């Protein structure tokens, strides 16, 4: 579906809900939010209706609970901004609605913590003073590309990463010095470079210019050390609720073996570690696995083990899950595309008593749940709980629980 068709469909779906004046001056121009013109209770009702339609194939669907956020503004712990040029000046902001090329120059974002906007406004001004050009995605020429900002919920400190094309270290160092002098809340300042043509804010080289190599943070009871590009849910309060609910629906399983697939920095496994005998986490990105081990050590968690590799590949080792680590419980949190078909087959063959599926894409979630309910052994959908991890947008995070019936 094209971006224009998606916008038209969204406009049709929003009919029947009460419109309010969007508080953000960039609403409608910026592509970041699409529901600011609905009062928050109506946003939740809109998302509930979408969920019910997505799960229409189930004749015995359990009631779907949708958990909202008490303060649906300023909730994001990370933002990624793109450099551009607008009216001859350096711009820094989000992509415009329905555009891959245009950038909306932002003075503030109502989803970002208050302390972030002064930093990116100063970065924009300092970048312009260097006289170096911004990167153009059509010509693939220019220097300044992206700015990443993370804020610690625990300390309020910031991690900043400026991403450019290679070269001009003296200009970057000058920007960095001024930024640190102006903003003592910056605990870490990185410079990343990339020559990739793809519009992805992940550098090929990364240099620490100032401060600690990581940002100290917490989620629930767990200490975290976050480098620039480790994954963390954007809203810490909702993430803690989601992982806590996961533990509640799993219950106490003192002798159980649990798998945490697509485990990232290990958070799901850490929450589960207090409920089960042992957890095995699998993650494709080696740096995330190293970070997961570090977090386990930091939090004194001993009954967890991590392995690096593609889930669909590692699960082909039947000896692992038939002898060493036959699972009673499996938690999956895959990318938006959902589970690889080989993963579904391997999980069915492993015959866990319970499968918990976390998803940010309801379409792929429903497809994969249908495969479990139609396969062998058979599974029954016991619970669906949605968490409004992304207020003001149409996105949700969903937790679905399957129990084996055969």
Walk me through the structure:
The chain has 11 helices and 17 strands. With 406 residues, it is of the alpha/beta class.
Features:
406 residues, 30% helix, eight-stranded mixed β-sheet, seven-stranded mixed β-sheet, alpha/beta
> pLDDT average, as an integer?
94
Principal-axis shape equals: globular
Cα end-to-end separation: 39 Å
Radius of gyration: 22 Å
Assess the beta-strand content as a share of residues.
25-35%
The major beta sheet can be summarized as: 8 strands, mixed
Task: Walk across the major sheet and give the strand order.
Answer: 1-16-17-15-14-11-12-13
Question: What is the helical fraction, as a range of percent?
Answer: 25-40%
Number of helices: 11
Order of helices and strands: HHEEEEHEEHEEEEHEHEHEHHEHEHEE
Q: Kindly name the structural category.
A: alpha/beta
Beta strand count: 17
Task: State the low-pLDDT regions, or none.
Answer: none
